[in-house]
Amino acid sequence: MLKSPAKLLQLTVTLLACAFLLVPTLQSVLAGVTVNYFQGVKSGLTLKWIGEVWTLYSSSIFLSIWLAFCCLICTLIIGVPAAYALARNPGRMSRVLEEFISLPLAIPGLALALALLQVYGSVQGFRAHWSFILVGHVLYTLPFMVRSVLSVMAAIDLKTLEEGAASLGAPAWRRFIDIAVPNALPGVLAGSLTVVTLSIGEFNLTWMLHTPYLKTLPVGLADSYASMRLEIASAYTLVFFVMIVPLLMAMQWASARAQRILT
Amino acid sequence: MSSRTFVALCFLPLAIFTLAFLALPLVRLILASGESEAGWAIYLEILQKPRYLSTLIQTVVISVLVTVAALAISTTAGLFLVRNRFPGRGVLLSILTLPLAFPGVVVGFMIILLGGRQGLINQITPGHVVFAYSAFGLFLGYLYFSIPRVLLTVMAAAEKIDPALEEAALTLGASPYRIVRDVLLPALMPAMIAAGAIAFATAMGAFGTAFTLATNIDVLPMVIYTEFTLSANIAMASALSVILGLVTLAMLLIARSFAGGVVAAGG
Questions:
Q1: Which percentage of chain B shows pLDDT scores above 90?
Q2: CA-based nearest distance A118→chain B, Å
Q3: Does B105 sit within 8 Å of A24, measured CB to CB?
């Protein structure tokens, strides 16, 4: 395999890049279970820091899970019918609409949050409620749901399937529920996992929208990086990894599965 | 209910949500940028005041450098992983795509673990090498989350290149260097431009990493944040946000005209 210097160079770059990405990750995992990071692993291993993270930040963790769940429900309710309608009306208007709802992918979260704050920041009951953060999360994750579902719906022969159902007397809403949605399920699943993963990790919008009583997991992370000792920050990062890595793996599996339908 | 009415109803939740929480706020943001004493001249002010202008230049320079570095690293690694099958390849690929789901704050913390006061580099080198909180630390942080994004785009494109092209070049006596320069890079160019534009846009707008690291260096998102929270200069924060949004939007449009489909920004 390494017969040429060019190959050797490629391998070196690949390994260095891997090291760059992996070493701090491992350091963080290790620091999260080390008694004293200054003295290193020889000071012993402990779950004490994880325990402290739990007492300090468990409410943030639960809020994030709750937000991700609500965000999923909202993107399903808004996104799946929208994707269906877009698939039924392919054309210039649909393209423009798709572009428009995809704006939150292009515009930095900070700018979006600023825009939201200026319109709704003074609505007290809303501003201080978790649903305000939820709006930000839905805004940011919705395009992923719509695209994921739409790409599958565009790839299956929705028209023929629906015509068959219509000739058997199925009304429009039954065709949506019994034909379109079940056939697009791989896309819905891939979209759902993406939405949950992104919602749990969302920081840019959330930092601007959150209140001191409503800290999500990543907001708590930023807080612990700024004010806690390295071991607690690391332990909290470890907790985040434990939550996000399985989700990420499931997301990649589901996307690959949905992708197979398209090709 | 007719089929047409039902499809129109399917748009309803989307229409309500995006009008209320996307269209209205964006219009408000643009209008707010003109509401200071300077009016719309505030955009001129950004180019005239050294503080804003230098921030803008600094952000663009860091983003360009990150884009170039990420392209160089990810294209090299991506080509290697596409063209070679060996034990452990899957593991390397997983490692390189793992940070996709890391929020910017976590990436910032990773850089602190490498180059912070208690960081690895400071521990294993004699003397004090602390770079996490400098422009270089920021560069590394942006590079950290750019590598996986660029890698995935480049690998997808590389898989579509016909290996017969390389073999043909080889039989015609081309050196490995010539094959890369004359066969692989031209074929990869659209994907590289697309991935580069996405990397650039992401770096321009990255807030979380800058928030964790940038104690000594001002980048655009940090300045927007301080203008809004500390100075309560809402018009300036809005104007800078509009500029930031337009720049990233333009970059992503370029990306799409070359490759179609946009990879996740954010972080």
A1: 52
A2: 7
A3: no
Q: Give me the residue label for tokens 């639960």.
A: A62
pTM, whole model, 2 decimals?
Answer: 0.90
What pLDDT score does A3 carry? 63
Hey, are the CB atoms on A108 and B237 less than 8 Å from each other? no
CB A57 within 8 A of CB A220: yes
Q: Does residue B114 sit at the A interface (CB-CB below 8 Å)?
A: yes
- In A, which residues are within 8 Å of B144 by CB distance? 20-21
pLDDT of residue B260: 56
Residues in chain B within 8 Å Cβ distance of A237: 106, 109
Flag whether residue B255 sits within 8 Å of chain A, measured between CB atoms.
no
- The amino acid present at B65, given as its one-letter code, is L
ipTM: 0.89
State chain A's maximal CA–CA distance in angstroms. Answer: 75
Tell me the average pLDDT across B217-244.
91
Contacts 24+ apart (CB under 8 A), A29-35: A29/A234, A29/A237, A29/A238, A29/A241, A30/A234, A31/A230, A31/A231, A31/A234, A31/A235, A31/B113, A32/A231, A32/A234, A32/A235, A32/A236, A32/A237, A32/A238, A33/A235, A33/A238, A34/A231
Q: Cβ B113–A31 below 8 Å, yes or no?
A: yes
| φ, ψ of residue A41 in degrees (nearest 5) | -65, -25
pLDDT value of residue A40: 79
Structure tokens at B250: 């333009």
